[in-house]
Design goal:
alpha+beta; Enolase-like, domain 1; 5-stranded antiparallel β-sheet; 3-stranded antiparallel β-sheet; 17% strand
Length: 354
Amino acid sequence: MNDTTRLLDELNDRSREVLRLVVEAYLETGDPVGSRTLTRSMSEKVSAATVRNVMQDLEYLGLLDSPHVSAGRVPTQMGLRMFVDGLLEVRTLDEQDREKIDATLSSNTADVDQMLDRVGSVLSGITHGASLVLTPKHDAPIRHIEFVSLAPDRALVVLVFADGHVENRLFTPPPGQTPSSMREAANFLNAMIEGRTLGEVRQVIQKEIAARRQEIDQLARELVESGLVVWEDRGEEPTRLIVRGRSNLLDDASDEEDLERIRVLFDDLERKRDIAEFLELTEEGDGVRIFIGSENKLFSLSGSSLVVSPYMNADRKIIGAVGVIGPTRLNYGRIVPIVDYTAQLVGKMLSDRS
């Protein structure tokens, strides 16, 4: 039991109702909520003074805050967390939203990345936020690898998989590479790689490099080791993060401070810092998770919330994630079922294809 759940259990029914009503009104309007407004929505007939006392108690507990000199209250991050954990009423998925998601995934395209691109666009469109889609890693055995020098500081690795899938990945080679050293590195890899996945290749190559260091020259060895960084998916291109709907967040920003927060958010995304952690965020359990403000390390500077769910392959292994990001004043009750349904549908579609 976490701290907010324990605190929620200690609140009486009236305090819970006041907190729920304040949060729901704030999520709908973004404005501070006053005691007189709440008296009209309470299930029991109580005075504004009684409600005001309850709000003061909730403020003392760190669940509500008084912005500026306003008499109204807004929820704190802890108040939002308590609402999401214990008071949120998740709606059933709207039929119109379901049809839009289904239409995206029922397309005949054989390209998974294109399909997931469309998923991101639809999520962004129906939630009016920015969508995030972490695409799956391709885990089929490899048939062939080839390195192509494009410039002194730019090279291309071509990966041909046993199922016919081909990937071209740009990377920065170590200084001093020559076409002959690249050919030597490719020959070295192709001699051992067939029938193995990228994950298996990494382990094999490390053993081979240790056992045969004298058999390949220094430059080729550096190239192979440089490639390993790419294949481990440590924030490089192979694990691809698709972001759609940036303009939705910019349009929603009310002042220069909000705009600056959103610029920081997208700078983070475009640099792909901590992207590996984005998937790890979802690995603690099945289903939708909600990260509010600073709870989410990846977006902690943005003052935003992330609603995210993993999707799985036929073996129930997490291979990617879909999510929606927006201000902390998200319509959680509507967005949670949208993200949940999309993740389940993406997982089923990818499982059926494999």
